[in-house]
Amino acid sequence: MKINIEQISEKPIEFSGEEKIENFPALLELNNSREPLFKGPLRFKVKLERESGRIRMSGEVSVVSAFFCSRCLSEFETKIFSVFTIYYTKEICGEINEETEIELDGHDLVSATYKGDEIDFGHELEEQVIMEIPVKPLCSESCKGLCPGCGEDMNHSVCFCTKAPVNMKFSALKDFKINR
Ligand SMILES: [Zn+2]
Ligand SMILES: [Zn+2]
Fold first, then answer.
1. Which of 17, 52, 53 is nearest to 125 (CA)?
2. 24-58 pLDDT, tens digit each
3. Alpha carbon of 87 to those of 100, 104, 156, 166: distances in Å?
């Protein structure tokens, strides 16, 4: 996923396409560790342009993935999606230009470097995907989870723990006698 920087001018150029997960070492490693499971391919759309001495890459990346819900433990599919802007500066003699470390305008912008005449943006695409992996995946915001008493999935069934609720208020009233 390389592009020669001579192709990039102040007039933006766009690329889009899809790439197999196998072409992203970090994503493949995550896939091999079972969770999450990228169902691939990784779809991307990027726009590259020169902007005040840097190369600006903006775009979006998505990949269909499977997770285990952190509440009910069931497996579900969702799409990981990220919209990003990355500023590239040329790496000179292995040194990272100090300027690239500056936060550009208070937004969550990413800076990266390239060597020689080529930008390999594959690495940044996989970084973007990794950043969007939820820490506590949820099959749904309203997932009821498992019953702490019996372990039943509360989304699909009613367990015995909830079938016989003890109505404390009512049983207290039953024995209540009014003194006249
Ligand atoms: Zn769930
Ligand atoms: Zn229960």
1. 17
2. 999 999 888 866 689 989 999 999 999 988 999 99
3. 8, 9, 48, 61
In a 13 Å sphere around the CA of 64, the CA atoms on its Cβ side amount to 6
Quote the ligand 1 centre to 147 CA distance (angstroms): 12
Find tokens 């506590």 and name the residue. 136
- 175 CA to middle of ligand 2, Å? 29
Q: Which ligand is nearest to the CA of 161?
A: 2
pLDDT (tens digit, 9 = 90+) per residue, 86-144?
Answer: 999 888 765 555 554 445 554 556 788 888 889 989 999 999 999 999 999 999 999 99
Angle at CA of residue 54, ends 52 and 60, nearest 5°: 115
CA of 1 to the centre of ligand 1 (A): 36
